[in-house]
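pasting for the record
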Amino acid sequence: MKNGLMWEPIEPDKASIKLAEGVEVLNFGSGHAWGMLGLQVELEEKGTIILASDALYTKDSAGPPLRPPGIIYDSIGWQKTANYIKALAKDRDADIWYGHDANQFEAFRKSTDGYYE
């Protein structure tokens, strides 16, 4: 414990960790980087959202066909992760919020306009 924080590492074989009611850390594994984490959030207004972080840059990255990023640690792991995120979103009826999708970002409500409930 440091600075009053309690850390819990996420082991490679652990798919997720619940942080709080409606908030889950998702372990995407290797791909764009050595280890990628995302977040699933349940919102009253928007429903289920998967924050893909750098695991999937844009909607175009998700394909079809899959389009990997220019910088990639593990190309096979990236394909597996991309397909996993898409399947998870379908299974959980979730929207994917991509890490670098400017078009998607334009449609988001910004902090100066309010917040999501």
